């Protein structure tokens, strides 16, 4: 695989991760209006005034623009080298699509004030752009795609990878796909908490305002819903990790990914708790950004597990697959 393509895709992943962090920073510091209602200029200027809010917001825009060019470059390079691979094309141009979509949504949020529900989608689309870029990079790195010009589209290395994913049973595939979709819902609710500034609705952890089930209204109801959703996600991921470890013949790739998913889920639960614990301290911004990092990593791992399940389904249904 060409080093330039891998380098571009890797730079896109790192860049999209930075965009996610900077977007969260904009929200947490209340810098969304740092450039007024002007876009792409900042308060009518190419170089904004040196205020904290304007610099944070404009830096986010600048980095997003650079990363957009990287994602575009990765998509073009993928088309040139891997256009015969439907999976690679899906991830490359999926990343480009979601990058453009989140940029448009961000611009509209500046020019025309949007509801909190719509603003929460901005983070969700950015997360999808990050995840599709990640899947493309992992596929390239692991040799899942055969370079254009190869005489055999199914090389010995790819067949070996197929053997490691073909034994994911149909029931496990459904659990994985369901967990991935549900995790996106949890992420959206978390973004909604952030944009509605409902983090303080549940003071204390694990209890909410000193109660097991608090009065479910306003910010308290939103924050409590996110907590319950996160706990349920932990249970689902734990079941997947347990079943993958106990099922005979379960692929090593799946077992390893499931263990990582469980670890990241546990960490993101405790990082969410740390956000509550540090609400009134100088550590709040750091814990909030760490929560974003862990949630993004968890969603990326679940998406990779979904791809493994998808490959397994395709391989199992292939009538020309050689008998093992």
Automatic annotation (TrEMBL):
InterPro entries found in the cross-reference section: COX15/CtaA_fam, COX15/CtaA_HemeA_synthase
Pfam families, per database record: COX15-CtaA
Transmembrane portions of the chain: 5-26, 62-82, 89-112, 118-140, 175-193, 224-244, 256-277, 283-305
Compartment annotation: Membrane
Membrane topology: Multi-pass membrane protein
Domain of life per record: Bacteria
Pathway, per record: Porphyrin-containing compound metabolism
GO cellular component: membrane
Assigned keywords, A-Z: Cell membrane, Disulfide bond, Heme biosynthesis, Iron, Membrane, Metal-binding, Oxidoreductase, Transmembrane, Transmembrane helix
Main location, first listed in the record: membrane
GO molecular function, one term: metal ion binding
GO biological process: heme A biosynthetic process
UniProt xrefs under PANTHER family: HEME A SYNTHASE
This protein's name: Heme A synthase
Species, as recorded: Paenibacillus hemerocallicola
